[in-house]
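This follows on from our talk about sequence and fold. I would like you to pick a protein and set down its sequence and fold. Go ahead and set the record down below:
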Amino acid sequence: MPLPDLHSTRERLRQGRTDVAAELGAAAAVARSAACTHVFLKTRFEAAAAEAAAVPPGAPLAGLPVSIKDLFDFAGDVTTAGSVALVDAEPARVDAPAVQRLRAAGGTVVGRTNMTEFAFSGVGVNPHYGTPPNPCDPKTPRIPGGSSSGGAVSVATGAAFIGLGSDTGGSIRIPAALCGIVGFKNTARLTPLEGAYPLSGTLDTVCAMTRSVRDAVLAHEILAARTVARSDAPLSGYRFAVATTQLLDDMDATVARAFQRTLRRLGDAGARIDEIPLPQVHELGSIQSAGGFAAAESYAWHRQLLLQEGSRYDPRVRVRIERGAGMKAYEYIELQRARGAWVREVGQALAGYDAVLSPTVPIVAPPIADVAPGAGRDEAFFGLNALLLRNPSVVNMLDGCALSLPCHAPDELPVGLMAWHGALHDDAILNLSVQIENLLSSKA
């Protein structure tokens, strides 16, 4: 049975069928249970309860619990970015703007969530604080996806209604897909990056995970301080592209079955779906052959900290950051130029389409044991990381927006459908995703 989303819980509050204290109590019980092992680095339910009692009537988030990734400043706390190298840093003096906006909207912060160290991996493994197990499989501990690993599990288990996170190459959408929830990566410029440790200033996006698309719309409106232009256009009014170059490669049987079944249902509902080659996706490898933005820009930020605390870094993260040391200035400038040209070419190829549909990631969540820190597993880890990042990172390079929503059957492990487009198509992606979710939640 799916957990109630924020909208339905607000309605239950209005009807007097629950109250905020009960909701916070239930969230606290979940957060302290085995389902949330390694999910929170710090909780504050007593303070949250006091804050919730002071939330004014009619506040959009109604005093309900939200979690924040350990990437974001929260006044009085040390922001460690999932690392032990920063545990002695000064506490934050003020909340990050994204945190401020959630609290101003009536969200009560119940804790800081675990993450991949410095947000530099899509797998979700953390050797310092443990790896949160994906709640999708009670028998086999599976990866949650990253880097916003703890945030995804907090939403999927019921410990929070919104999980604030970041997305540089898929760090919101990957864990959302693997944990069976919704993750929306907005156009990066729409949400403030201040008060969050950077990975790549060029690609970083502040965004959130939720239990439904309608909750994603609300969370985006709060974080971006803007109103989404709503549309009730039916699916028959949309034209979708399915890009066949690389984005459909290496799908496992569960993902392939769920993706094709979803396309059939959309087609039956009247949506127009065209397969297109989009060869530009294949060009990304050569464009980034000298190194990508994340390595170069993260190394610029971490260079001094590595000299002082490098031995305390996750070795898998450190090696990826240090690749940026070899990138020359002219190569970085050429990468910027090539990206601009590539964005224009992709934009031309997608003209006339409302969205592209792809699997968010091509596989279901594998067991943590396959890639846990340890001798002989690094090759498997880096191979899995590249596979998970492959599809969602296309959108970050495009400076675009994308939403991942569940498309699996009840007896399948979670599979994410990603609807995406270029910059500032956010409202269209959100509106059509509402329609897709409604279709998939109805009886076939």
Notes: The mean pLDDT is 97. Residues 15 and 72 are 35 Å apart (CA to CA).
